[in-house]
Amino acid sequence: MISSKTSIDMIETGKRLRKLAQRNGYSVKDIQQYLGLSCPQPVYRWYKGVILPSVDNLLRLSELYQVHMEELLVRTGYILSYDVEKMKNENLEKRIRAYSFKLVA
Description:
By secondary structure, this protein is mainly α. It is built from five helices and no strands.
C-alpha cells in the first residue's frame, strides 16, 4: 500500500479565507454572525493561520462563498496560483451545466 502525506498549509489557507471574505464583501463580524460564533477571535485566528475552521464551519463558509470545501484549503507545498474570479466562473459553469442537464433529462 502506498501512503501519501498531505497536509494543509494553515498560513496560506488563512490568506485564502481572508481573500474570499474580502472579495465577497464580508467583514469578520459578518462571518462571526453567519457562523453563530460568540466572538470574532476564531476568524482572526483562521486568517493568521493559527487554527483551521472546523469541518462544519468549512462547509458553511463554502456555501457562503459558493465554492467547494476543498477550494478553501491550501495543501502544503502547493503552488498558490489562486484566482478567485476564475474559480467563480468555473463554479458557475459547473452549476449551469448541471442545471441544463436536469432540464434536458
